[in-house]
Model the fold of this input.
Amino acid sequence: MAESTQSLEVVTPQRKVFRDDVEFVVVPGAEGELGFLPRHAPLVSTLKIGEIRVIHEGKRYKGFLAGGFVEVRDSRVTVFTRAAERAEEIDRARAEAAKERAEKRLAARTPDIDVARAEFALKRALTRLKISESIKQ
Ligand code: ATP
Done:
């Protein structure tokens, strides 16, 4: 690994979404965005639902993170999350459907509805749509 890069790994229970050496990474920390350059001080933080941005070989990339944790140590950034996709992998129709389901549940508010669960599902769907929209040509 060159002096100007750090390793980034994004891990979900299903798959390794990303693993490479990158120049810069920004993740959605619980208290605000966290940006990491190589040799960042060791850190562990929780993440909220949001966008991950990366500079890899001089190019900018972004993706979706469904919250989780980040650990930084020895120029290695590791993200653990329940779900992540590169921006171009986001299925907009699926996110639209998830958004509508969550909105219907929140509008109905029948006793069997888990409001917090529906709110998180809505937040995931809206964030996926926003990220996908932002890379449209
Ligand atoms: P859904 O109700 O559509 O499953 P969700 O927000 O509940 O949405 P997650 O639990 O965040 O889904 O993710 C489950 C799996 O499906 C993960 O592997 C995630 O990457 C994938 N996934 C979910 N929504 C999308 C999407 N719109 N585009 C691509 N992959 C998706």
In short: DSSP finds two helices and eight strands in the chain.
